[in-house]
Amino acid sequence: MIQFSEEKLAKVREIIARYPEGKQKSALLPVLHLAQDSFGGWLSTETMDYVAGLLQLEPIEVYEVATFYSMYNLKPVGKYVFEVCQTGPCMLNGSDQIIEYIKGKLGIAVGETTPDGLFTLKTVECLGACGYAPMMQMGKTYREHLTREKVDAIVDECRQNAALNN
Amino acid sequence: MGRKLLIDKAQIEGIRTYEVYRREGGYRSVEKALKSMTPDQVTDEVKKSGLRGRGGAGFPTGMKWSFIAKPEGVPRHLVCNADESEPGTFKDRYLMEFIPHLLVEGLIVSSYALGSNITYIYIRGEYAWIIDILETAIAEARQHGWLGKNIQGSGFDCDIYVHRGAGAYICGEETALLESLEGKRGNPRIKPPFPAAKGAWDRPTVVNNVETLAAVVPIINIGGEEYAKIGVGKSTGTKLISACGNIKKPGVYEIDMTISVEEFIFSDEYCGGIPHGKRLKACIPGGSSVPILPANLLLKTAKGETRMMNYESLSDGGFAKGSMMGSGGFIVFDEDQCVVRHTLTLARFYRHESCGQCSPCREGTGWMEKILHNLEYGKGKISDIDLLWDIQRKIEGNTICPLGDAAAWPVAAAIRHFRDEFEWHVKNPVECLTRNYGLAHYADPLEAPATA
């Protein structure tokens, strides 16, 4: 059952209050982020319909936004999503090789999730970290100056965190 | 060397906090503006300063501000464009991450000038932790009386909210940004009407880049005339350059626009030269949308003059023989890099980021990507090169927004200056998969034109 807690509903009201009266549609992007983070890291149709109801929008108004912006996941993702930048300046500093390394290490292609549900690999466009390339985004953090060793360390770190939380 | 006005204090311990920022002279420009200047006087200082939009277009900021419509009883808005997504550009990130109060201070003064009581920062969604940093700084500013009702007893109300994007380069275009602020797909609007007349929720709106708004602080502190004395010609004040690619010291530098490109790349005060003893092959000086230049057209203009790091000099020669300051995303290529491959990554980028409204861009970007992919992987034909030229030419100028132009220009410049590299890929389909074309003649000095 997709439903925000009281605390999150209060956050939604706070977000809506930032915009002019009657313009609660402006809250859609921030609220979709909140929904995605709250309900498994992706936006199911059920989740999107719930958000539509909260903001008094037609479902299509939510679907068309969710499908436009690249940060919204429309399929389930792993616990840890590696979003590796592949644009020009990162390419000049070895991002292609890092992507190949991660694919080999995790045994998945770009866009796929490992069978244990832990890791999803996505390639993304410029993240604004060109001077610290190659790099990737993982949740709220940027992991920069990537090397094979750093990738190994990050994967280990994630596996340990996942084990601790089980 | 060179005066710094923006990030000179960015590495002071604790500068992210209100206490340290205030101690270092923060919020003085708010005091000065609210207590001793009218909104129009603030705009006048910005006009005198010669400040130009630092997001990439370089439009005179004071002039943009003076366009804002002021119908009675209709709220106006300032929106800060923190959607930094131009490949090679990470200078707004640095400013917001390390010295967020500078932006907050600049926003308050600018909001006062424009009559914006509710100001928004539209920030790209991927800068997730920076949103927390900004909201903390905003809360501190409010707590200390620099935001809220009747700021410092001036009668001016202002509040700032952060609006998080969700992954769309196109939302850095001001009208697409406004669409996104309204909760819609980032489809650019046809102009006119301009945001100054009808912007966010049809209200008069000014959209400015992070660095532009931060620059308002030193402009008010030292005065527009003093600011204009720094730099040269129409390149007044200081500019943040985010340097990346194949250099020893990538990072964000603040320059006063009187240094040469050569000094910027090779001096230890800036990029420190190219690592591993490699030679310079090419450079994109202002973010992926501006023309790439080979080394021999980068360091000297076609006339044989030293090329300088300012708006006029970087544009010397037009697109035929020059480039642009753009966003300041300075990307350096060493001799081992492949221009075809890099152009392919950019074509893929623009295809991914195209909003899809305009046929030339929507279809043209994907088509260029496919052709470049074939060329890079040894499956190209010689006619592909002229076909690419034709496609980019038919996108440029035929779209609602400049993303189409931005997609066309890198392909045009790569072919214009590096055609033989492209031809080599076609003529050597197997060899091009295992080695790159190299430096070739791209650093050989060009013949200076005969003087009269």
Provide an overview of this structure.
Chain A is an alpha+beta fold and 166 residues long. Chain A has two domains: 6-66, Arc Repressor Mutant, subunit A (Orthogonal Bundle); 80-164, Glutaredoxin, CATH 3.40.30.10. Chain A contains seven helices and four strands. In chain A, helix 3 crosses helix 4 (59-66). The radius of gyration of chain A is 18 Å and the shape is globular. The model of chain A has no long low-confidence stretch (mean pLDDT 97). With 452 residues, chain B is an alpha/beta fold. Chain B has three domains: 18-229, Rossmann fold (3-Layer(aba) Sandwich), CATH 3.40.50; 235-334, Ubiquitin-like (UB roll), CATH 3.10.20.600; 339-433, de novo design (two linked rop proteins) (Up-down Bundle), CATH 1.20.1440.230. Chain B has 18 helices and eleven strands. Chain B has helices spanning 18-23, 28-36, 39-49, 61-66, 91-98, 100-114, 128-143, 174-181, 210-222, 224-229, 261-266, 295-298, 311-314, 318-321, 339-353, 359-376, 383-395, 403-427; strands at 77-82, 118-123, 159-164, 205-209, 231-232, 235-236, 239-245, 251-255, 280-284, 293-294, 329-334. In chain B, the strands form three sheets. In chain B, strands 8-7-11-9-10 form a five-stranded mixed beta sheet. The mean pLDDT of chain B is 97. The chains are: A alpha+beta (166), B alpha/beta (452).
